[in-house]
Design brief:
Elements (H helix, E strand, L loop, with lengths): L1 H33 L18 H88 L9
């Protein structure tokens, strides 16, 4: 019987506060229409729930579940991080090998360029010497046998 009375009292209080809130909302709406640049005042009241043994145990269980989920996620992320570290090490090794190969090829190209330039210089020297020898032989010319007079 007491429960029924308590429930009825709570229900009537809730309905009365709801009706009062609607009246306040209507008054605020009328005022805000009249003054469009003024915002309505809102009052919020709340009371923290008082934990009991069951709610504390329930929340502790939720916290345990969250902690265990985070631990699992940390393990998964740590494993993923180890995989990324291995991949980075493998890629660094490949990069080092590729750079070494590139450096060898650049050195070979530089040596080839140097040898080509040296060969070109020697060719020009030999051609100049050949022209010089041809010029000297033309200047002295071949000696023809002397004709009798």
């Amino acid at each position: 019987m007491l429960r029924t009375i308590a429930i009825a009292a709570a229900l009537s209080a809730a309905l009365a506060s709801h009706a009062a809130a609607q009246d306040v909302a209507q008054d605020v709406a009328r005022d805000s229409v009249a003054r469009s640049n003024v915002l309505a005042t809102v009052v919020v009241t709340a009371q923290p729930t008082k934990p009991n043994v069951f709610s504390r145990a329930w929340h502790m269980q939720e916290d345990r579940v969250q902690v265990l989920a985070m631990m699992d996620e940390n393990r998964r992320l740590a494993s993923q991080l180890r995989g990324y570290d291995k991949q980075v090490a493998r890629l660094e090794h490949r990069l080092g090998a590729a750079k070494a190969t590139h450096d060898q090829k650049v050195a070979a190209i530089a040596a080839t360029d140097s040898l080509t330039a040296d060969t070109h210089r020697r060719r020009l020297e030999l051609e100049a010497k050949l022209r010089q020898l041809e010029g000297a032989s033309v200047a002295t010319g071949p000696t023809a046998p002397a004709e009798p007079r």
